[in-house]
């Protein structure tokens, strides 16, 4: 899926393995320690774990028997596993509750395309493992929704297009295999922007011919943003504990921000892209989305498996000295952290006020916040889209060769030109046509442009962080959600995701506040393979901002807002 001058998407490529970085946390502790759960997994069966405090139940939750005392809007994976360890909750009970919510709530938002008929069978197997004390990990029995451009055996996996809606894939994408190995319950597939927003010049985010239009749960006539629109909206509506999104530039983080949830775009290559409909192997990555950072961190641990890496580079970078950590001192919470604030006033006064308030809260918690403007942004915008066109032609041809349906991009383009159902919101296939005409990735002009693009994106982050001794750069993730309009479509005006997306560096969106009813996220970005450090920081930021609130499913807002003029897409 894409946000700025390009549509952003998914993940692609496949995998050597990284070496463990010295001092890196194990999968069991990861960033969870930031939320006082560092010893949670190792003590799962212990009595202390089962006594963790749980949020108060909502009326809907309390009616569900096993879920009495659990609010699905706010409960975390560690809290659910505490219940399962004590016998107060079963994976089957949790799965039934989410299936019931999908049936009751999804008709308002159209975020879930289909549920997996085997979900309760998967949950029953997890029940048995919990009874035997043979739990596979923190995700065992946890319901997960998968974006519909990720191959899932036995389920149609269409990228939102009728061209791929004839048969389910014969095997799972690598990331789905890892989720199954971790014991997760594959609950179903989420709607997305068709072809991850890489089909038409003026698409409408959240629309696909297969699933129609996904709506923002906060205000139903507002857009959910980006190609992972269904994953973000489903989480906002608490239709699963976790969802998987994909991003080329903005398609995890913008739906997270605009739907008031958390989304991680990992370092390029840490999550395998085999079996994910591609835009560009140079930028695509799948990543976890959830309603809190701890659930994102635990899912990220499962997705990266035993250290598979795809794309360029097989080993993590050496630990980067940043902030006060450079001197070896210990940081506690936000104290001693250094954050660079990239304001992006083009997103509007209301968003800027949220950024100012967030910066003040972080300063009050002991962080140093300095204003920064990462360089080279105009040049990145100029170079990114042409490079993605060449890469999409190469990568989509390779993907289609292994799927039933159109055999290459030329056939795919002809299919979309001819099928009326593919034109019910917008008719264009301009990006397909441009990709067909783009220079091949063997062309020296393309190679030079991609090399410059990657180099400048990395320098924009690395140089800024080094100059100010930063732990992370922060920026607004999104403007308030614009009204959805097929005739108008989306424009590309949200630049904050681009540096990390093009560099292949991690970025994390956490809720920062709201403009009226409409959520705005804070985007944190850092250096290559700093995913764990970023998640740890994000957990502290989330704790300080406490910006999440449940959606009210309002049909509309009484008056237009300035955000209606700020439109964007994500790929």
TrEMBL record:
InterPro entries the record matches: Amidase_dom (IPR023631), AS_sf (IPR036928)
Disordered: annotated span: 1-24, 310-333
Stretches assigned to the Amidase domain: 94-535
Protein origin, superkingdom: Bacteria
Biased composition range(s): Low complexity: 12-24, 313-333
SUPFAM superfamilies tied to this protein: Amidase signature (AS) enzymes (SSF75304)
Protein name listed in UniProt: Amidase family protein
């Amino acid at each position: 899926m894409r946000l700025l001058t390009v549509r952003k998407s998914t993940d692609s490529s496949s995998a050597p393995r990284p070496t463990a970085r010295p001092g890196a946390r194990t999968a069991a502790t990861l960033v969870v320690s930031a939320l006082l759960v560092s010893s949670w997994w190792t003590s799962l069966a212990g009595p202390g774990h089962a006594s963790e405090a749980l949020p108060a139940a909502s009326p809907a939750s309390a009616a569900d028997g096993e879920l009495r005392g659990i609010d699905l809007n706010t409960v975390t994976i560690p809290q659910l596993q505490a219940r399962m360890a004590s016998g107060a909750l079963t994976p089957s009970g949790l799965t039934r509750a989410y299936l019931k919510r999908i049936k009751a709530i999804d008709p308002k938002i159209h975020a879930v395309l289909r549920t997996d008929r085997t979900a309760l069978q998967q949950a029953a197997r997890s029940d048995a493992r919990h009874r035997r004390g043979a739990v596979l990990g923190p995700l065992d029995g946890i319901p997960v929704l998968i974006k519909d451009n990720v191959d899932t055996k036995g389920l149609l996996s269409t990228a939102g297009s009728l061209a791929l809606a004839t048969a389910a894939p014969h095997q799972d994408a690598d990331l789905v295999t890892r989720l199954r190995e971790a014991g997760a319950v594959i609950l179903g597939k989420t709607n997305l922007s068709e072809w991850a927003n890489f089909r038409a010049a003026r698409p409408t985010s959240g629309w696909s011919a297969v699933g129609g239009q996904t709506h923002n749960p906060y205000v139903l006539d507002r857009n959910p943003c980006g190609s992972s629109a269904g994953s973000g909206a489903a989480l906002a509506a608490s239709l699963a504990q976790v969802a998987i999104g994909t991003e080329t530039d903005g398609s995890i983080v913008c739906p997270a921000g605009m739907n008031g949830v958390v989304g991680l775009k990992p370092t390029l290559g840490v999550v395998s892209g085999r079996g994910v409909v591609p835009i560009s192997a140079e930028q695509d990555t799948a990543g976890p989305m959830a309603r809190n950072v701890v659930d994102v961190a635990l899912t990220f641990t499962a997705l990266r498996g035993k250290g598979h890496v795809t794309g360029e580079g097989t080993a993590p970078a050496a630990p980067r000295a940043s902030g006060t950590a450079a001197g070896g001192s210990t940081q506690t919470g936000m104290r001693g952290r250094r954050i660079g604030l990239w304001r992006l006033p083009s997103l509007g006064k209301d968003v800027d006020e949220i950024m100012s308030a967030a910066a003040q809260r972080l300063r009050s918690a002991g962080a140093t916040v300095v204003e920064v403007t990462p360089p080279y942004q105009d040049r990145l915008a100029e170079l990114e889209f042409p490079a993605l066109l060449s890469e999409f032609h190469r990568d989509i041809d390779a993907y289609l060769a292994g799927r039933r349906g159109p055999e290459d991009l030329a056939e795919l383009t002809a299919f979309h030109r001819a099928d009326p159902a593919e034109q019910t919101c917008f008719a264009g296939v301009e990006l397909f046509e441009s990709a067909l005409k783009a220079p091949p990735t063997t062309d020296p002009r393309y190679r030079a442009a991609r090399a410059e693009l990657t180099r400048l994106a990395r320098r924009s982050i690395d140089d800024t962080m080094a100059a100010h001794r930063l732990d992370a750069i922060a920026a607004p993730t999104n403007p308030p959600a614009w009204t959805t309009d097929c005739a108008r479509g989306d424009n590309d005006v949200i630049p904050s995701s681009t540096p990390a997306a093009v560099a292949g560096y991690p970025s994390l969106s956490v809720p920062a506040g709201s403009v009226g009813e409409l959520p705005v996220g804070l985007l944190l970005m850092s250096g290559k393979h700093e995913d764990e450090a970023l998640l740890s920081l994000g957990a502290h930021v989330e704790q300080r901002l406490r910006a999440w609130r449940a959606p009210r499913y309002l049909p509309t807002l009484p008056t237009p807002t300035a955000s209606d003029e700020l439109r964007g897409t994500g790929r």
